[in-house]
């Protein structure tokens, strides 16, 4: 029997993805996905249309979000929320505040980039046009696209290396304990996204996980593009040692030229439907007040 496959970490135009929520659900259906999660950065605007498309195309869609968080000296730790009420008032308010801050930050970045372009004798970027093209949460990838469209760079990597990294403006992050609490308050569960991107030191990562578990962390994204198959097995073992659930996703954005594919990630990444079962079980345990994945 063919294994039912899922992808629980996808991005749409509501953050920094290439495809709209309905388009992404359609691509997932063509890729043979049984279930997916739209996990846009700090944005839940695409969930309703994705749910509708999922019903029409026979793809299970799970509400999700990816929050940018920090802990001590660790910045830009990504936290995935699953199964929450995406209309929850406090959640949507805090996400709106966060996006407002990011919009100001990105305008400052474009202003700095334009000063560099002026020094090079080049025409400036139009921030309003970039903002309109984002159709949701504006991020640096949208500025990179504008640089490519203007013919100033040939790739995203070149855009970041030449313009975006040198002209960066400090980001704002949710403290990770507050991010976990926010997801829980909306009825969801909190999962650490692509753990190797936090640190590749196993001992250091396990110590962090122990701290995050005390804060209420529910799971690890063991199936991710930051590891090979042996790395996936190690992360599954880490999750089990700390009574955490296991999830997985490709982190697909649809970026032109990227090797990441829906449901496949890079190489042979394959995410089983059991990850969806684990999410549902964790949501049920949270509802009845127990955190033991075996209970």
Could you explain how this protein is built, in words?
Helix 2 (47-57) links the parallel strand 2 and strand 3 (60-71). The chain folds into two domains: 5-94 and 179-288, Metal-dependent hydrolases (TIM Barrel), CATH 3.20.20; 102-164, no CATH class. By secondary structure, the chain is of the alpha/beta class. It contains ten helices and eight strands. The mean pLDDT is 92. Strands 1, 2, 3, 4, 5, 6, 7 and 8 form an eight-stranded mixed β-sheet that branches.
Features:
2 domains, 16% strand, 295 residues, single chain, eight-stranded mixed sheet, alpha/beta, TIM Barrel
List the helices and strands and how they pair.
Blueprint: E1 5-10, H1 21-30, E2 33-38, H2 47-57, E3 60-71, E4 74-82, H3 89-119, H4 127-134, H5 140-149, H6 156-164, E5 174-175, H7 176-185, E6 189-192, H8 202-215, E7 219-223, H9 229-241, E8 245-248, H10 274-288
Parallel strand pairs: 1-2, 2-3, 3-5, 6-7, 7-8
Antiparallel strand pairs: 3-4, 4-6
Helix pairs in contact: 1-2, 5-6
